[in-house]
Amino acid sequence: MSAIAGLALRGRRVPDAAPLEALSAALAHRGPAAGPPVLGPGLGLVGRGLPAEPLSAGAAMLVASHLLASPEALRTAQGLPEARDAELPLLLYRRRGLDFGAGLGGAHALAVADHAMRRLVLARDAFGLAPLYFAETSLGVAFASEPGALIAAGFATPRLRPAARDELLQLRFTTGAETIFEGIQRVLPAECLAIAGGAIVERRRAPPLPEGGPEAISEPEALARFEAAFLASLAARLEGPTPGLLLTGGAGAAALVAGVARLGLPPLPAFAPVLEGQAAPGDAIPVPVTRDAFWACLPALAQALDDPSAEPAHVLHWLLAEAARGQVPALLTPDGSSELLAGHGRHRAAMRPWWLWGRAMRARGAFDRLETLGIEPRAWRDGIAAAETAEAGSGRSRLQVAQAVDMGDWLSNGLLGGLDRCCARHGIEARAPFLDAGVVAATFRLPDALKVRGGEGKHLLRRWLGTPSPRTTPRLPLGAWLEAEAARLGPLVARQPGVAEICRPGRAEALFRRATDRRAGAAAWNLLFYALWHRVHVEGVAPRGDAFETLG
C-alpha cells in the first residue's frame, strides 16, 4: 500500500518542494511520509510507507513501492551480494540496467535516480500489482502511484478521453497505456521507462507470459510442478507479520486455505463475504454484505477508484478490507487464479470454434442494442482487438490467447487496480500468490485439457484440492437492489451531468426500472458507478453519506 511520486524536469535546476509535497499529500492514505522530498538537479522524489534508500556507492537512489516476493531467494537466483532488502533492486539495476525489473518478482513500482547517467528510471512489476502513472508536461515528466495525485498536484486536469469513457461503460475497465484522463498514462506491467532531460527517451517491456503453445505434460507431473511453485510463492508472501486471507470464494480461495495447511502452518485470519441466508466457510470471519452496506460504501469506493473500474467484485473487496482494517497488515487474495487456469466462462467460450457456439471474448458491450446512449460507441473494442492480435501467434491455443488478453488489460487495469485502491484506503497491503513468476511458468503453458474439463475451468486446481466444487464466489444481487430503488435512483442518475451528456432522455431511468433483466441490470450498474465516479473525480464533489446523498 506504499506509494512513490516525483518530477523529472527538462532543465537541471532543483525543483521546488511545494509540488512534490502536494503529490505526497495526495497519497497520504497509502502510508506515512518517508521523509522530506529528495531534491537534486532536475529531479525530485517522494515516498510513502517505504523510505528512499540510497545505494552505498552513491551513484543512484531508489524510491519504491514494493514487496519483493522473497529477498533471500532473489539474492540466490541473481547471485547478489549481502545487502539490505531495500537495496536489492538497486544492485540488480547496476547489473542489468533497464532490464532489472524482470528479475525482481513480487509487486513493485520503482523509481531509480541514476545520477551517473543523468536519468530517471521507472519500472513496474510483471502483472500490474503495484500501480504507477505519469504525465508529460511543459516542465518535464511527473509520476505517481495514483492518477488522482497527479491531478491534485496540478500536473494534469480531470478532462476525460471519450474513447476511454466508452470503454469503461461497455467493458467496465479501460485498456492500454492511456488512462481515462487526458495526458495521464500508465507505466504498463513489466515495463521500464527511461527519462532524461525531462522527456521519455526509452520504453522497454519484457514479455510477462511464457512464449509458446501448450506443452506436453502429464497430469501428475503438472500437479507436482504446480504444488512446488504455488507453495513456494505462498511461503514467500507469508514472511513478516501474519497476513489474513481474502476468501471471495471459488477454487482460488480454497487453494489459499489448503496451501497454508500444506505448509504446516496454523490457520490464518480469514475474511469471507456473506450475503443474506449464507454462512461463512469454516472458521472464517463473516463480513455481512447487505443492501444498506452496499449503498453506504459506493461513494467512498468511487472516490478510491480514481483509475475507474466498475467491476462489482470491488464492492466485496471494499467491505472485506474495511472489516480487516486494524486486524491484519496484509491480505492474501486468490486473484489471478481464474486468469491463469481458465476459470472464466468467457475463456471457455473463446476456445470453441464458432460452429460450436464459440465467440470472441468481450464481443458484446454492456450497452449494445439497449438504445440508451445518445451516440452508440463504435470503437470501444479496439483495445481488446489490438491485444488479441498482439497475443496471438507462437503456437498459442485459442484459450491461451484469451487468457493472455485478460491478463494484459482486464487483470491489471480492471481487477488488481481496484483491489489495490480498496486495500490501500484501509491501510492494508494486497498480496497475490498466484501472480508469481514461478506459478505462471508452471501453469500458463499447460494443455487446455488440464485447465478446462467437463465444462469447468481450473481443472488442475480442483484436482490439487481434491474437492470438485469449492464454495463459489458470492454474486451480488445488483439487479434486485437497483430495481427496488428505481423510482428515486433512476432520476437521480439520469440528471447527473456526466450521464445527461451521453444518454437519451428517459432511457437511463428505464434501465433501473427493469434492472432484474440481466442485460439491463448490468448496464444500470455501469451507469450508476460512472455517475458516482464522474461526480467525485470530474465534477469535484466530495462524497457525503450514501449513494443517494452523494448524487442528490
From TrEMBL:
<dbReference type="InterPro" id="IPR006426">
    <property type="entry name" value="Asn_synth_AEB"/>
</dbReference>
<dbReference type="InterPro" id="IPR051786">
    <property type="entry name" value="ASN_synthetase/amidase"/>
</dbReference>
<dbReference type="Pfam" id="PF13537">
    <property type="entry name" value="GATase_7"/>
</dbReference>
<dbReference type="Pfam" id="PF00733">
    <property type="entry name" value="Asn_synthase"/>
</dbReference>
<comment type="similarity">
    <text>Belongs to the asparagine synthetase family.</text>
</comment>
<keyword id="KW-0547">Nucleotide-binding</keyword>
<keyword id="KW-0067">ATP-binding</keyword>
<dbReference type="InterPro" id="IPR014729">
    <property type="entry name" value="Rossmann-like_a/b/a_fold"/>
</dbReference>
<dbReference type="InterPro" id="IPR001962">
    <property type="entry name" value="Asn_synthase"/>
</dbReference>
<feature type="binding site">
    <location>
        <position position="85"/>
    </location>
    <ligand>
        <name>L-glutamine</name>
    </ligand>
</feature>
<comment type="pathway">
    <text>Amino-acid biosynthesis; L-asparagine biosynthesis; L-asparagine from L-aspartate (L-Gln route): step 1/1.</text>
</comment>
<dbReference type="GO" id="GO:0004066">
    <property type="term" value="F:asparagine synthase (glutamine-hydrolyzing) activity"/>
</dbReference>
<dbReference type="GO" id="GO:0005829">
    <property type="term" value="C:cytosol"/>
</dbReference>
<protein>
    <recommendedName>
        <fullName>asparagine synthase (glutamine-hydrolyzing)</fullName>
        <ecNumber>6.3.5.4</ecNumber>
    </recommendedName>
</protein>
<dbReference type="GO" id="GO:0005524">
    <property type="term" value="F:ATP binding"/>
</dbReference>
<dbReference type="GO" id="GO:0006529">
    <property type="term" value="P:asparagine biosynthetic process"/>
</dbReference>
<dbReference type="InterPro" id="IPR017932">
    <property type="entry name" value="GATase_2_dom"/>
</dbReference>
<dbReference type="InterPro" id="IPR029055">
    <property type="entry name" value="Ntn_hydrolases_N"/>
</dbReference>
<keyword id="KW-0436">Ligase</keyword>
<feature type="domain" description="Glutamine amidotransferase type-2">
    <location>
        <begin position="1"/>
        <end position="198"/>
    </location>
</feature>
